[in-house]
Design a protein that fits this description.
Helix 1 packs parallel to helix 5. With 455 residues, the chain is an alpha+beta fold.
Length: 455
């Protein structure tokens, strides 16, 4: 993907502008007290995220890429994400909301000047190659926008965010699962100029044939797990999962509550019935793993997920997105906080992968069975703290992106990760099973098959 300098400049400016519009929409809707409050010990005060976004932009666009003097070096220790745990950040001498807004405006003015003067053909500065550093900062801001959206979900009080409901799905008769043939495919990327270090390098992985759910597991299907006593039966839980389920007293997805025989959920300040046909949301890895065991299946590996999403068996190449290399549109996926909830399972047929699976991009982050580990020949760039310090068995990989993530931070190679106990994130899952050599037909062939439902 070798773009001309003017195109790189335009794309970078648009990505930075889109991110800032979302940042301000998530913060301007609340008063100063709400912005400075900590709505959950799991999350920072929103005003910390606001100034941290500006500080990262100053560090990398103004100083590193532009070679300009620091605007506010005194802020570096306050907004270093590794220096202070989230629960401790309210006690810091943080910028109040209006000074934080003034700071990020001043940083952006200088960052755009750096962008206007940047020479992307300079071989001596890898930060500028393909506009990488500008894409990295746009992605960083959008990732914090999704984090701030999660803070809004945890916040108690009246609703302040509004968005239209996603369109209804027209699923027809979908198979419950799709067969992904065995064989090698190219995982990761060497060609996407804005891909982050953990997505690199591209490498060949041989994946045996497997079956994958056509769509994410729905609320209706998950309620069957609950009704069958899934939360009370240790057979379905790993030892660590069962221990956590007991200690955390898990009985349903986060934000769900009983109303007689019905289930309600709280969504951005509004209590409403749980939509049966939407993907289940706000479940931790242990819950996803337990459901898969109960269903006689398993979570897909990260390599299986990416092969199902990207591999085109007709050409042998891996696509940037499930539908191809074109940027996402509203026809392909539920992204960009456009709807503030997942679309019904079976939506977005235009976004289907060659495997036939749908909604592999957008709606919910999907837990995989894989630990967050580096690819062969991984090299940290431009700093170890983005990926390298997180590699290990403590974290599980999520793929696909949620309704809360922007397209700039969502592609077929993008890797997300979190602790297996996390539920405040916009996480769901789909299940898989090994394929036998004689397999030709899925289990369940109708959209609402009594054996295994698609919706």
């Amino acid at each position: 993907m070798n773009e001309q300098p003017d195109a790189i400049r335009a794309n970078a400016a648009a990505a930075l502008r889109t991110a800032r519009i979302r940042t301000l929409a998530l913060t301007d809707c609340l008063d100063d007290a709400e912005l400075q409050a900590q709505h959950s010990p799991l999350m920072s005060p929103l005003v910390w995220d606001l100034a941290h976004i500006g500080n990262q932009e100053e560090l990398w666009l103004v100083r590193a890429a532009g070679g300009r003097p620091a605007l506010r070096p005194d802020l570096d220790p306050l907004y270093d994400a590794f220096a202070h745990q989230r629960a401790d950040r309210p006690a810091l001498p943080l910028l109040p909301p209006e000074p934080a807004r003034q700071y990020i405006r001043a940083v952006r003015d200088q960052a755009l000047e750096v962008l206007d003067a940047a020479r992307f053909d300079e071989t001596g500065n890898p930060l500028l190659a393909g506009g990488f550093v500008f894409g990295m900062i746009a992605q960083h801001e959008q990732q914090h926008d999704e984090t701030m959206l999660a803070t809004h979900q945890l916040r108690l009080g009246p609703a302040v965010l509004k968005a239209p409901a996603p369109p209804p799905a027209d699923t027809g008769r979908l198979p419950a699962e799709v067969l992904v043939p065995g064989g090698p495919f190219t995982m990761g990327t060497d060609t996407d100029p804005w891909a982050l270090d953990n997505e690199r390098p591209a490498h060949r992985v041989d994946v045996p044939a497997f079956w994958l759910d056509t769509v994410p597991v729905s609320n209706r299907a998950y309620q069957e797990f609950i009704a069958d006593g899934g939360y009370g039966d240790p057979r379905w839980w790993s030892p660590d999962g069962w221990k956590h389920r007991q200690q955390a007293e898990l009985t349903a997805p986060l934000f769900w509550q009983r109303d007689g025989s019905a289930w309600l959920r709280r969504r951005f300040g509004t209590v409403e019935p749980v939509p049966p046909d939407q993907p289940v949301l706000h479940v931790c890895w242990y819950e996803a793993d337990a459901y898969a065991r109960w269903a006689g299946r398993r979570l897909p590996t990260e390599a299986e997920w990416e092969k199902a999403a990207r591999h085109d068996p007709d050409t042998g190449r891996s696509r940037r997105h499930p539908w191809g290399d074109a940027d996402p549109t509203a026809e392909h996926a539920n992204l960009g906080q456009r709807h503030l909830e997942p679309a019904p399972v079976g939506s977005y047929p235009a976004g289907a992968a060659p495997s036939g699976a749908r909604q592999l991009t957008g709606d919910v982050w999907e837990w995989t069975s894989s630990d967050f580990l580096p690819y062969p020949d991984f090299a940290a760039f431009p700093y170890k703290e983005y990926s390298e310090v997180f590699f290990g068995t403590e974290y599980k990989v999520l793929r696909g992106g949620s309704f809360g993530v922007d397209p700039v931070a969502c592609r077929g190679t993008f890797r997300n990760w979190d602790y297996p106990i996390r539920r405040q994130i916009f996480s769901g899952f789909r299940t898989a099973r090994d394929a036998d050599p004689s397999d030709t037909a899925p289990r369940g062939t109708a959209a609402r098959d009594a054996d295994r439902e698609v919706s």
